[in-house]
Structures are given as C-alpha cells and as structure tokens.
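Could you please consider the sequence and fold appended to this message?
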Amino acid sequence: MKRTRVWLAALIAVFALIVAACASNEDEGPTAGTGTTAATGATGETGIPTFTTIEEGKLTVGSCLDYPPFESVKGGVETGFDVDITNEIASRLGLEVVWVKADFDTIFTAVAGDQFDMVAAASTITDEREQVVDFSVPYYNALQSLSVNTQETPDITSTDQLGDGDVVGAQKGTTGKIWAEENLVPQGVEIKSFTSSTDSFRDLEAGNIVGVINDKTASVEIIKDLPSLEVVQDIETNEHYGLAFSPSNPDLREAVNAVFAQMVADGTYATIYGKYFPPDSLPAEFAPSS
C-alpha cells in the first residue's frame, strides 16, 4: 500500500526530531534496558519510547515457525527473514527473544490476550485483524499464488481453470484462504483447510488436492525440494506484512516502529532482505536513506 512509504518517512522524521530534542538533555544520560525503562539504540541514539514486556528483559514472540523463508526451525535453531528482523529489533531494544510456536489460526487472539508480546509470522495487515491487534508499520510486500502438481494436472495454469469437483488447499486463518473462499468457492471449488501451510503442499504432492493458494515467496521456498510441484500463477493482492501487538501495549509497538525506521535508514533492513531475496527486488520504500 502507498501508506508504507508514508509511515516509514514519518517514522524517520519523528525519530530525527526526538534525537535532536534529547540532545539538549545529555546530562541526564540514556537509560538502557527494558521493562519499564527506556531502551537505547545500538549506536547510542536515545529517543526510543518507554515500553514494557511480559517478562523484563525478554521479547516473547509468537510464530508458526514452519513458514520458510520467513520463519522455520533448523537444527533446533529459529531461522528466516522474520527471525532476523525480530532479532535485530530486539537487540536494538536491549531484549532477548523468546520464541513461542503457535497456530496461525489463533495467533492474533493469543497476542491480544497477552500470551506473548509480539507476533512475527508473515502476517498480512488487514482491516479484520486490526479489530483484534495493532500492527507495526509494514515490513514486507507480498502476493498470493497458485501451486499445482504438474504430474497430476499439467494443464492447469490459472485459477480460472478450476471449477466443480476441484479441491484447493489453504492454511487456516490466512489471507490466502480468504481469497480462495471469496474467489474460488463461487466457481464451485471446495477449500480444504490446513493448520500448517507445509501440510497443504504435502497433500498436493500426494495428489489429494488440485492446488494450493498461498503467499508466493513462501510457496517457492516450500516446494523447492518437491519437483512435482510448481507455482503456476501469481495473484496480485497488494498485501503487506506487519508485526502484531496487543492493543493494550501500544508503547512496545511504537518502540518497535522506531527501531525499524532506524534499520531501514541505516541499511540493516536491506542487508537482511538481500540474505533471503534478490537484492535488486528491494522495494524503494525500504531502501537506505543514504
């Protein structure tokens, strides 16, 4: 959405003003730490809003942890784009990340109920979800896709070819499932729900369903070792991912937004992005300020 660039520009401008204001109070010195204390940026800048977390010194983060390249577990260690973004944010806030595996279908009500501080799970910002949680500024632009089993249905290349008797998989609680229900059910397509996105692709590989509607970036990563599966159609939905917070903790969200603006401005975001995606595909709104 166009608001992405506006949000980031505003955050960077606000951050600069805060730093200038705080410079006149240097005799007080920054208060490092977490909990009810103010946090400090990695390079010593002050001005991060005061915030609290469920457990002092820790950022408890809910995630599915099975959605590469955004978040997954390899060798017992959390890895992925969302993981690196979260770890960098936490580091700048002086926090240690504690990951909590959660079902995506209930993850927003869980964070709204203060079961964890933040959700980092490739979560699209939607009006419906904003009735339950507060989102950070957007941190990734996404689109949906259709994947098929080319050994089973080599002629299907578009959702327009789907109809009565076809079964398509989608993960519970996702915008992919919402899109499928709104656009494919009227065509006579049955939607099969999965708790885990990876399970939907296993079902597709087994020939139990005709296709999977899922975020394209994750789909490409999930099927890279499944030669019978292929992403055959991009579905432009103008989606943007955000980190989700309980409405009862707006200060933490604002602190995260502030350090995220730092990360974009100083090029840290671009570096993390280039680790997982083609660097030349970096959207302009996430490019370093200099």
In short: The longest strand covers residues 229-241. DSSP finds eight helices and twelve strands in the chain.
